[in-house]
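Re: [ENG-882] Designed sequences occasionally contain unexpected residues at chain ends

Forwarding the minimal case from QA. Structure tokens:
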């Protein structure tokens, strides 16, 4: 058996080994790709689940946040409006106070007198006081002289006594009459006050009854308002619960779909592994058949070679 024949016999084995190595490398690459694809799918599913949870959390918190923001904005607007109104009132009061202060200062300036005016005024006042004191002295002297003259006449003195008595009686009668009028006025006032008090008492009773009715109406309105608020709250809670149940059902469906996809992936992987195993078994069977055929060929070649050698040796021996 020469070298060319050995090379020709070994060449198919090398080609088959190269094909086997290449097949194993392709299988490893495909398996690695499948594992990476599975890992990427799981990562993407986890990211989708996280996004769904974040969205649900955001939707649950957004309504309350918006409501609180509106309340804060409205309260801030009311506070700013009150602050502006207070500032405006302060400015008006400051302007009024400043104007009054200026007017008061101007009035003080106008009322202020010069020294000459004060001297003239004091001179006029002194003359008036002196004249009045002199007039009072003269009147007092005339009154005393007249009284002295009347006291010197008995008839006039008796008449003065009678006049004084009559004046006293008239004053007493007038006082009694005024007291009677005062009593009648007090009675009228008491009667009017009693009537007013009675009317006020009736008005108070009526007001208390109206207040009770208003309290009942307000209570009923409060109950109705609370009922409406409770109804809206229950409806909102029911809507939130329905949304939550819907989201839970969707998550359950997604989870079931994910589990089903994982199961399908496991089944597909098993089927693919079984197919790969069958292909490997077929390839191993083909390789075994090739090896058996090669062994048979090699044995036949060896037998032929040995028979040829023996024949040639026999021929040489016979020669």
């Amino acid at each position: 058996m020469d070298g060319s024949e050995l090379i020709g016999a070994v060449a198919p084995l090398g080609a088959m080994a190269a094909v086997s190595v290449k097949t194993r490398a392709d299988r490893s690459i495909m398996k690695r790709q499948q594992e990476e694809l599975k890992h990427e799918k799981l990562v993407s599913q986890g990211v989708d689940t996280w996004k769904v949870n974040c969205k649900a959390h955001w939707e649950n918190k957004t309504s309350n946040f918006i409501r609180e923001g509106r309340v804060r904005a409205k309260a801030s607007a009311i506070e700013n409006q009150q602050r502006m109104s207070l500032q405006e009132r302060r400015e008006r009061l400051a302007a009024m106070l400043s104007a009054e202060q200026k007017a008061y200062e101007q009035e003080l300036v106008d009322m202020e007198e010069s020294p000459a005016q004060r001297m003239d005024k004091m001179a006029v006042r002194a003359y008036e006081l002196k004249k009045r004191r002199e007039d009072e002295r003269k009147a007092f002297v005339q009154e005393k002289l007249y009284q002295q003259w009347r006291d010197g006449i008995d008839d006039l003195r008796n008449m003065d006594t009678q006049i004084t008595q009559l004046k006293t009686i008239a004053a007493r009668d007038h006082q009694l009459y005024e007291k009677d009028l005062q009593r009648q006025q007090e009675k009228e006032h008491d009667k009017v006050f009693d009537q007013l008090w009675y009317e006020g008492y009736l008005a108070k009773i009526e007001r208390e009854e109206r207040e009770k009715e208003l309290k009942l109406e307000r209570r009923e309105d409060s109950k109705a308002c609370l009922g409406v608020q409770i109804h809206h709250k229950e409806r909102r809670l029911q809507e939130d619960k329905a949304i939550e149940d819907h989201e839970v059902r969707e998550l359950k469906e997604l989870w079931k779909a994910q589990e089903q996809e994982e199961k399908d992936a496991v089944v597909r992987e098993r089927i693919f592994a079984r197919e790969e195993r069958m292909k490997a078994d077929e390839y191993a069977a083909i390789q075994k058949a090739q090896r058996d055929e090669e062994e048979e060929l090699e044995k036949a070649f060896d037998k032929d070679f040995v028979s040829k050698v023996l024949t040639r040796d026999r021929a040489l021996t016979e020669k």
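QA comment: On inspection the terminal residues look reasonable. Confidence is low (pLDDT under 50) at residues 1-19. Proposing we downgrade this to a documentation issue.
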